Amino acid sequence: MSRRVVVTGIGLICAVGNTSEETWKSLLAGQSGVTRITQFDPTGYACQIAAEVKNFDPLNFIEKKEVKKMGRFIHLALAAADEAMRASGLQVTPENAEQVGVFIGSGIGGFDVIEREHAALLNGGPRKVSPFFIPAIIINLAAGHVSMKYGAKGPNEATATACTTSAHAVGDSFKIIQRGDADVMIAGGTEAGVTPLGVAGFAAMRALSTRNDEPARASRPWDKDRDGFIIGEGAGILILEELEFAKKRGAKILAEVVGYGMSGDAYHMTQPAPEHEGAFRVMRNAVRDAGITPADIGYVNAHGTSTPIGDDLEAQAIRNFFGKGTTPPVSSTKSMTGHLLGGAGGLEAGITVLALRDQIMPPTINLENQDPVTEGMDFVPNVARKATFDYALSNSFGFGGTNGALVFKRWTE
Fold it and tell me: Quick check: is 163 catalytic?
């Protein structure tokens, strides 16, 4: 029998909160974090809005001399890990250090530093490029810095699977513990893609909303007037522990991780496969791994990005999987947080755990005119809802046709 894995700590930072509880409170209030971009002047950009982290000071988590050695995505990861570790009460000691691992991914890494150092190269030549340029941008340095901060000497990994990145990080960490290669994993993802090049690139693909005059109403999954996603930034980190290890140290358990699925579309660079059959298969794989049936799932935290094609296809996949007329309530918290790209799966895994803990489903805001093709589906429109449910599913899908799904179980023991 494989080992059981539980969640004992959550650290979230995003546009609607700098801690998990602040984020959760904002989500339940239906509060949007989308505003006009402040990190650079977006005048002239097709999309001038984003879901930026607000009032964030990396000096609260990192020594001043170290801050410039890291990209913003690393700053955010360290902040989320700090909260998650404090919440879990976990102490890494010489006795357990080799059984504590870190698995944190990012879809893009240090875009901000790449742009800054490229400008330095063009303006001043190669001698103006920082010696910390490379370690500040590469994706695995988020996990590297977290491991160094806490002395975690177990598995140390990073993923870069686009918008599925941190769902894969959490799921792979679950499997690492399940098979006995670690007792604890600090797992999740981080992203800081609100940069001139990041926004220009996604806008050039016509993937972003251009509802610049109404930022708070721009992210509107499954609404018939949606016109693209909102790029967000932040991080979501979970502390996963083997059940007996957690119990032995008296940890407060928030939920159990019971299922993980992966799949590939093998179809297109950016578009989901027809009927989003890759999403169907990843949900099937996750639910099967959990040893339950689709009927046991009481809530789905959807990928739900607010893109015209993606939302409809995900809804179709959910319908196909659960059966038309029997789909559970589904919501997209990206309607409030924006899309954290590689950080989305970690953020939403944490949100899903909080939903199970408090037995409340966060809403999909801005759902004013539900797309007719999703008629009959319940997207928890605009207002959070109390409910009773034991299992919840979190979906993540990425460019390149990479899919991940996680199943969490309410903790009742």
Answer: yes
